[in-house]
Design a protein that fits this description.
9-stranded mixed beta sheet, binds 2-OXO-4-methylpentanoic acid, D-amino Acid Aminotransferase, Chain A, domain 1, D-amino Acid Aminotransferase, Chain A, domain 2
């Protein structure tokens, strides 16, 4: 694989700096190109500098683009481990298929990321709770305004040293159930990680923030009744002794943290259901004192406890506004496996060679 070096390296964030999420980017990136008739080619590590783009590129007009989010962790023994990258590559290829983007070799992408991570070792944050966020994306680059799948693409992977996604860390979130807008419909692109889904979510997210909420809880688009997911996370509710997460239905993103939590919970003997759950049921459970916990899961957010849910103008407090026992257990287990503090019984850590 070609490695094009740059002359000047960037200044790194100071040790102990509040990294937040997705604000800093390392010196290099992995890229490869696609052209119809040739396939994917020219995989290389190159300087991460602003790119020149033809403004007629398909992605800029019709949004033909997909992305992923994964994390790598510096282990106590100095090795670097990525959390479940095979799951991300598989999902990215499924998203690509939905957006008419040609499949890529997960092996090539993984190799590129491993070389990149190794080269950027000095950028790894070391404070507790930090990691290297990995952002792969594919965008359609052919300059053509006809509404067709592009014949050219750019695949790139950026690295971003990252801390908490939410500015108050593990403090419970305030979420508002969105009853006007919908994020996605069954048959649409909701289960694909495509860029348009996030653009469609921005207005509701902005209005929620203006009212003092962190994110929205999305309902199904047909009946506006059943919980689908939250802004950047899948949702879980603990009602009595049942842990419930909305069943994947084609419009919900199949989260890898969601999948990991389901496995940890089932193996821990919890009663877990993947089923439809209405906002009404959540509100009633809160009212009757049965809603013990609510939390979101995601690569960026990890496990994010929810302290307040507003539904139809009424605020429901969850678990006394504090992080619940199950959310805390999941947070400790997932981050323990990721960071190497705990053993890895599932083989979720992939060490770079
Ligand atoms: C992630 O959790 O990695 C995501 O991609 C969600 C969001 C930050 C876009």
């Amino acid at each position: 694989m070609q490695f094009i070096t740059r002359e000047f390296l960037k200044e790194k964030p100071a040790k102990g700096a509040e990294l937040g999420f997705g604000k800093y980017f390392t010196d290099y990136m992995f890229t490869m190109k696609y052209r119809e008739g040739r396939g994917w080619y020219d995989g290389k590590i190159e300087p991460n500098v602003p790119q020149r783009f033809d403004l007629a590129a398909n992605v800029l007009h019709y949004g033909q683009g997909v992305f992923e989010g994964m994390k790598a962790f510096l282990q106590p023994d100095g090795r670097i481990a990525i959390f479940r990258p095979d799951e991300n590559w598989a999902r990215m290829n499924r998203s690509a298929e939905r957006l008419c983007i040609p499949r890529f070799s997960a092996e090539t992408a993984e190799k590129g990321v491993e070389i990149l991570l190794d080269a950027e070792r000095s950028w790894f944050p070391t404070d507790p709770g930090t990691s290297m966020y990995i952002r792969p994306a594919i965008v359609a680059t052919k300059a053509a305004l006809g509404v067709h799948a592009s014949s050219e693409y750019l695949f790139f992977v950026l690295l971003s040293p990252t801390g908490n996604y939410f500015k108050h860390g593990l403090a419970p979130l305030r979420l508002i159930v969105e009853t006007t807008y919908a994020r996605a419909a069954v048959g649409g692109t909701g289960e694909a990680k495509c860029i348009g889904n996030y653009a469609a979510s921005l207005l509701a997210g902005k209005r929620a923030e203006e009212q003092g909420f962190d994110q929205v809880i999305w309902l199904d688009s047909a009946e506006k009744k059943y919980v689908e997911e939250a802004g950047s996370m899948n949702m879980f509710f603990v009602i009595g002794d049942e842990v419930v997460t909305p069943a994947l239905n084609g419009s919900i993103l199949p989260g890898i943290t969601r999948k990991s939590c389901l496995q940890i919970l089932r193996d821990g003997g919890y009663r877990v259901s993947e089923r439809r759950i209405s906002a009404e049921e959540v509100a009633e459970a809160a009212e009757s004192g049965k809603l013990r916990e609510a939390f979101g899961t995601g690569t960026a957010a990890v496990i994010a406890p929810v302290g307040t849910i507003r539904y139809l103008g009424k605020d429901y407090t969850v678990g006394g506004g504090k992080i619940g026992e199950i959310a805390q257990t999941l947070f400790d287990t997932v981050t323990g496996i990721q960071s190497g503090r705990l053993p890895d019984p599932y083989g979720w850590r992939k060490y770079i060679k």
